[in-house]
Amino acid sequence: xxxxxxxxxxxxxxxxxxxxxxGWLGRAAAAAALGGALVFSNPRPSDFDGFxxxxxVDVIEAEVCRGEVLPTLLRLALRDCPRxxxxxxxxxxxxxxxxxxxxxxxxxxxxxxxxxxxDLLGWSLxxxxxxxxxxxxxxxxxxxxLDAGGS
Length: 151
Fold this sequence. Notes:
This protein is of the alpha+beta class. 41% of the residues lie in helices and 23% in strands. The protein is elongated.
């Protein structure tokens, strides 16, 4: 028997109420509420357009201006490649948006972008591809880049 420190008499027993049990119905309702919140916060295609004009154009700028994608003669002709790309941000973002397929999975959306890979005046244009996941009001780049070989 445990004795209270100050009185040397038995300590009163304290009974704690058991935690309320939520059965499968409670858990299912919580999961449905969470799922519904994710569905309603799933980014819209218009959200992706703004994202493409900002984030994906930055990826294109980094790949084109800092890489070996452009032919040497063209790189010499372009004095300020990053500024040229930034000046065309809206047009490039709209182009990216037109070449993007959205797969709405309810809880999240997958945006898949692909363009390029064709020949223009004997120069093989690089193929750009990107995969973006949209969920809970956020858009996240999973993969993005250029394939300098085209095709």
